[in-house]
Structures are given as structure tokens and as C-alpha cells.
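Inverse folding, one chain.
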């Protein structure tokens, strides 16, 4: 179980520091629709994160059982594919960031402050099914499969993963309702910081996690 937890923690952190959900969270909390949009977004985000890792774990469970001794070639190849895909996405994301550094909010992000409850919930769920979210979820499912944990342990690990991965959305929303006046200046600062550095942070995290997963797959084949 501890080996599986060690594999899940960096993946959960990578989900947690994703710039888009953090940016959407701050924009909702600073909008006039905060009271009706924030909680649906929180619920949708938690459901989406949990759904991706559960579906990925179910997919991984359909793979051949890992050998008791020696490397697992199926997990190794899939890990290499996921790692390589994350590296490519990280590079693409980094290049897009350098080309649009000063353009501010674009596209649908500029309309976040008008989201109602249903739209906020749907957006939160769908954000988890972006390529990055799916790749990280698949990697998490493979980590659970590779260590052959029991069902009860897997459920506990999925719960821990979900708590960590959703913390950067859950904590600001809860804090904003508990102490709105104290939290608002921090939200403004976070929004401005993410606007300038969020894409870079996400890209570097994707590259790092991608290299780690790719390296793990290569070592499993050697």
C-alpha cells in the first residue's frame, strides 16, 4: 500500500497545481455569482477527480495481473506512453504560454464570472476529462495496478488521492465562505499570480511527472 501511495502522491500534486481549475476557482469566488456557483463547482471538481481515477483503476484492473517477480511489460509500455504524452503536452503548454503571456484571460475563462450553478458543476466535471487529467488518472490507475493492492486499500488510496488533488479548489472555497473579507485579498493576489505564472507552473509539473513516469516504464523493461 505504501508503495502505491508513493506513486500516487506526485500525481495528486500535479492535479492539484493545475492552473485552470485554480484560476476558475478564484474567478468564481471574486464574481457576483460566488454564492450560487462556488459550491457546485467544488462538488463537480471532487466528483470529476474521483471519477477519473476510479475509471482508470477499473481499466487497469482489466489488464493482466502483474507478475510476482520481475517487471510487468504491459504496465511498463503503458507508463512509457503516458509519460511521453505528458512530456509532449508540457512542451506544447509551455510554448503556448510563452506566445500568450500578456494576453490575459481568453476564451471561456473570460466568462467564468457569469457562470450559474449548473454550468459551474458541468465545467468542473469536464475539466477533469482534459488530456492532462486523463493521463494523470491513467497513471494513477496503473500505479494501483502495479502494486496489486486489495480493494479496501485501493478505495482508501483513491480517497487520499482525491483529497490531495482537490485541495487547491476545496480549501479556497471553504475559506471564502468562512471568512470572505480576509480571503478576498489573497484571492486577488492568487488570481494575478496565476495569470502570469500558472501556465509555466503547470507545464513544468507536467514535464517533471512525465519524465518520472517515462523513466519508470523504461526501468521496468530493463
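Residues assigned per position:
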Amino acid at each position: 500500500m505504501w508503495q502505491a501511495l508513493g506513486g500516487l502522491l506526485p500525481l495528486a500534486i500535479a492535479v492539484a497545481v493545475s492552473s485552470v481549475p485554480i484560476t476558475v476557482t478564484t474567478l468564481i469566488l471574486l464574481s457576483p455569482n460566488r454564492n450560487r456557483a462556488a459550491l457546485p463547482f467544488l462538488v463537480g471538481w471532487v466528483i470529476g477527480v474521483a471519477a477519473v481515477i476510479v475509471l482508470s483503476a477499473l481499466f487497469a484492473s482489466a489488464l493482466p495481473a502483474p507478475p510476482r517477480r520481475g517487471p510487468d511489460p504491459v504496465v511498463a509500455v503503458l507508463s512509457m506512453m503516458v509519460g511521453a504524452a505528458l512530456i509532449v503536452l508540457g512542451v506544447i503548454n509551455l510554448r503556448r504560454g510563452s506566445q500568450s503571456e500578456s494576453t490575459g484571460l481568453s476564451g471561456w475563462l473570460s466568462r467564468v464570472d457569469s457562470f450559474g450553478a449548473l454550468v459551474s458543476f458541468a465545467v468542473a466535471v469536464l475539466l477533469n476529462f482534459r488530456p492532462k487529467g486523463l493521463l494523470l488518472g491513467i497513471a494513477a490507475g496503473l500505479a494501483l495496478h502495479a502494486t496489486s493492492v486489495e480493494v479496501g486499500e485501493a478505495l482508501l488510496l483513491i480517497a487520499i488521492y482525491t483529497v490531495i488533488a482537490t485541495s487547491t479548489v476545496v480549501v479556497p472555497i471553504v475559506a471564502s465562505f468562512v471568512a470572505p473579507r480576509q480571503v478576498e485579498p489573497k484571492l486577488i493576489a492568487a488570481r494575478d499570480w496565476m495569470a502570469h505564472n500558472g501556465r509555466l507552473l503547470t507545464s513544468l509539473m507536467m514535464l517533471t511527472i512525465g519524465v518520472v513516469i517515462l523513466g519508470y516504464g523504461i526501468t521496468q523493461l530493463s
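The chain has a mean pLDDT of 88. Residues 21 and 127 are 7 Å apart (CA to CA).
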